[in-house]
Amino acid sequence: MKILLVFLLLFVCPDMLAQTIPGRVINRETREPLAFASIQPENHPRVLTNIDGSFQLDLEQLPQSLTISYPGYQAIEVNVDRSTRYLQIGLDRSGRSVKDHSEDLIGEAINRNHQNDPERALEGFKFRTYSKFIIDTKSNAGSPIEIMADTANGRAFLSEKVSENFFRSRTGTKELVTGIQTAGFDRPVYNVLAMEINPFSIYKDDYRLYKTEYAGPLGKGALRNYEYQVLDTTKSDRPAYIVHFKPKREKIVAGLEGIIYLDTTSLAVQKVRAQLLGEIRLEIDHNYEYFPGKDLWFPSEQSTIIRPGSGGKEVAVFDSSIGVGTIQPKKSVLNLIFGSANVDKNLFLSSTTRNFDIDLNFDGIIPTPGATIEVTDEAPNKDPDFWNEYRQSEYTLRDRVTSENLDVLLKENKVARKIQVKNAISTGYYPLKYWDVDLSKIFKFNNYEGIRLGFGGKTNDLISEKFNINGYTTYGFKDEVMKYGIGSRIFLNKRTGTNLNFYVSRDIQETASFNYLKGRNTFSIIEPRFVNINFFYNYRTYWAGIQHNITPNLETEFRLGREEIWQIRDYNFSVDGRQVGEYDLSTATLSFLWRPFSRFLSTPEGNRILERKFPQVTGQIQQSFEAFDGEFDFTRVGLKLEHEIKRLDLSRTEFILEGNYGFGELPLTHVFHAYPNNPNRPAILRRFSVAGRTSFETMYFNEFYSDRQAMLHIRHQVRPLRIAYNYRPELVLISRFAIGDFSNQANHLNIPFNTLEHGYSEAGFEINKIISGLGLSFAYRYGAYHLPTFDQNFSLKFTFLLQL
Predict the structure, then answer these.
(1) Helical (H) or strand (E) element with 550
(2) Domain 2-91 matches domain 494-800 at the CATH topology level
(3) Which residue, among 205, 1, 244, 236, has the nearest Cα to 103 in the 3D structure?
(4) Is 225 helix (H, G, I), strand (E, B) or coil?
(5) How far apart are CA 119 and CA 111, in angstroms?
(6) Quick one: pLDDT at residue 772?
(7) How far apart are CA 333 and CA 729, in angstroms?
(8) pLDDT at 138
(9) Number of Cα atoms under 13 Å in the Cβ half of residue 608
(10) How far apart are alpha carbons 674 and 742 in whole angstroms?
(11) Which end of the chain lies in a sparser environment, N or C, as judged by fewer CB atoms within 10 Å?
């Protein structure tokens, strides 16, 4: 049977008899590679070298002559025949001085972006897309037997997608995925949709490709970031300039090297081919189709190939520790759980997208415009007729055997379990059969409880996909008190994040804390401030709430609750002529998180963020009622604005502005602090602890309280310091300001504190990632609340940035 298949392959594919001739074109004098040099065989299409000067010719007719040329160099002819195994071709400079107008040409092309970029030139358009995502071996099998073996083995990963794409100038883009399937998996792998392998436009200032932003070769800053050289002009009905571009500041700004075909009349992009040889190896091709009625070139096909490079950057569908879907691994904490993945070094990732049914006059309404990418409920369940109708490339025999082979591979490697663990850990849990253990509840330490050990978690989908039961119990060895919490979450609609929640708990809470229900990170390996907090109060609470995402960009939560509060320290609140330390509260809380410019993926299983963009706004209002046996009537409002400016040189500036306002009968337990993080000890080294991101490092615990306050945090991270290839510490400059006041300070008995009416200031810097995720933080208090000695105003701490 195998012999029959060999002869069949020889008969059906006679081009297998073609001879492959590799080679390289260089500058004869300097030995430097000549990127995109032209190699023109007599009877074959022209071939251009890669950015390292390499090339590969597949020639059926031999012998024949090759013409090798490059601008500014003398063209030569080389003869090849069946005996040729490798070509090293050196070119000499021509010696002629020709004025280069390349930058003028590119400058004019950039000026015409508004009429050539479809997203600027058109009011609206729509089209369908077919995408094929594979991971395969880069085998250059030359014999039919080797090819047959590859076919029998199938691919390492295969995913297909069909989608409808919409654009309106006022509302932006929308991709509606109508069909998706992943070989070997019962459910589609949505991670592929979030990998950003095939960017739509080459015209943008920032060209975002697989977790990295590169300078756009036709963006606003292109002439500052790239060098250009016109190589040739094509001979066709719509001739184009072939322009070579390469990074000018590659150690500062990430860039690609390639060639761009610019229409000689409109200077619109006809085609782009770009490459990168670095941490990963990239090959990118963009092809455009001309529409005479609009005098516009529109993207028709995009393909990206990623191969292993020098290392340091992970290329994986799930996580490199999982193995399947991994091209290039990276060291990770998860390797301690899964072990290091053994990855075939010959694997490469290939993604091809073809656009069809293009309509450049779309003026309709974009369906459900909230999420950038939305997977319909029916998309994972399409039948073979659907795929046969919309596939824009051949579904090969090798594709067919992939599903069966992958099914066996996934089971042997327990991939489903590894994915479950990885997804759970990313949210702070570790799954044990039916129960996901809450990692944040296992161990903590603070000055009041001492060591705090516990166990908590929630039931997972193996129990039910419609609800979970969650809870915890924990014990403080210093205060010798057992704390607990138990509740349930009912999933009404996973796509919109609509859940009903019920909870009962007895625990302790930091005095004057204001915790936003939305926009908080519930899991952290190290909580910097928690260790040094020493002013808590006891509470028992009962609450019910509902969560709902109005759009993927706007998350909301509403709670009704009752709190029973009693003090740990000797605190009393003087109100209406009485002093109380124990009281009950009836509260209603509404919280929201609004991320208007962030990009989201919406699937039947829920929403996930594709790209976090700023500004981001978090808000919350809480009302305490005297009704329902509540003792105090007060209102607390909080609003937090976060903004970040990211630059192509990897520097960034962050701003966090937060305001809190409370009025009514407000006990000290429910006023505000400014997130102090300085232990109340005299010596600098005795105060050595972990620095926080939004805390005041020189402000002592319990030093200031306010019933109205505003805080501003400014962090500027300069470009990472390149000390060595894999050693790049980060310097962050920090400034923090806070101002506040207190209306009835005398009503809070036995607890002395200051207010912030004169304004609090501190400044400092961090050096992060000195050793792995560890760094150092330095800060100094100045201004109105400056203290007498240097030691009192200075803080020295370490930072901890751990990436899973």
Answers:
(1) strand 536-551
(2) no
(3) 244
(4) helix
(5) 15
(6) 80
(7) 19
(8) 63
(9) 14
(10) 13
(11) N
Residue type, 286: H
User: Tokens standing for 388?
Assistant: 């046969």
What would the two tokens of residue 487 be? 């509740």
pTM across the whole model: 0.90
CATH fold group of domain 2-91: Immunoglobulin-like (2.60.40)
Q: What are the domain boundaries of the chain?
A: 2-91, 102-420, 427-489, 494-800
Could you give phi then psi for residue 710, rounded to 5 degrees? -140, 145
Considering Cα of 518, then 523, then 524, then 530, what sign does the dihedral take?
positive
What 3-state class would DSSP assign to 403?
helix
* Coil, helix or strand at residue 468: strand
pLDDT band of residue 478 (cuts 50, 70, 90) is: very high
Least confident range from 25-39, 161-175, 717-731: namely 717-731
Burial class from Cβ neighbours inside 10 Å (0-12, 13-18, 19+) for residue 91 reads buried
Closest CA to 499 of 556, 438, 563: 556
Instruction: List beta partners, residue 454.
Output: 474
Beta-strand pair 696-700/676-678: parallel
Assign a CATH topology to domain 494-800: Porin (2.40.160)
Average pLDDT estimate for 328-356: 77
- Kindly report each contact of residues 725-728 with a partner whose C-beta sits within 8 Å and lies 24 or more positions away, as own/partner: 725/312, 726/312, 728/769
What sign does the CA torsion over 410, 413, 417, 423 have? negative
CB atoms within 10 A of CB 220: 14
Q: What would the mean pLDDT of 418-429 be, rounded to a whole number?
A: 83
Q: Any idea of the CA torsion for 18, 80, 283, 53, to the nearest 10 degrees?
A: 160
What are the structure tokens assigned to 73, written together? 């160099």
- Reading the block at residue 491, the tokens are 């999933």
15 — pLDDT class (breaks 50, 70, 90)? very low
Predicted pLDDT of residue 2: 42
Residue 537 — very low, low, confident or very high, per pLDDT cuts 50/70/90? very high
Q: Flag whether pLDDT at 144 surpasses 70.
A: no
3-state secondary structure of 711: strand
Place of tokens 């502005």: 657
269 strand-pairing partners: 262
Mean predicted lDDT score pLDDT of the chain: 89
Q: What separation in angstroms does the CA of 307 have from each of 48, 303, 398, 581, 644?
A: 19, 13, 20, 66, 32
Token pair 């998860």 is found at: 334
Count of CB atoms within 10 A of residue 569's CB? 15
Q: What is the mean pLDDT of residues 111-139?
A: 92
Measured CA to CA in angstroms, residue 50 lies from 56, 198, 276, 408, 702 at distances of 9, 20, 10, 38, 64
Query: How many angstroms separate the CA atoms of 738 and 713, rounded?
Result: 9
Q: Identify which of 164, 180, 172, 271 has the alpha carbon closest to the alpha carbon of residue 217.
A: 271
Instruction: Compare 46 and 520 and report the one with higher pLDDT.
Output: 46
Q: In whole angstroms, how large is the CA radius of gyration of the chain?
A: 31
The H-assigned helical ranges of 623-667 are none
Cα(56)–Cα(18) distance, integer angstroms: 12
pLDDT at position 219, please? 92
Q: Above 50 in pLDDT, residue 683?
A: yes
Helices 144-153 and 397-412 pack at an angle, to 10 degrees, of: 50
520, pLDDT greater than 80:
no
Residue 30, both tokens: 């300097």
Tokens for 243, please give them. 């322009």
CB burial of 466-503 (b: ≥16 within 10 Å; e: otherwise) equals eebebbbebbbeebebebbbebbbebeeebbbebebeb
Whether residue 349 contacts residue 440, with contact meaning beta carbons closer than 8 Å, is answered with no
pLDDT digits (tens, 9 = 90+) for 600-626: 999 998 999 988 999 999 999 999 999
The span from the CA of 177 to the CA of 129, in Å, is 9
Confidence (pLDDT) at 1:
44
Q: Six-digit token pair at 419?
A: 């994915």
- At residue 331, what is the residue type? K
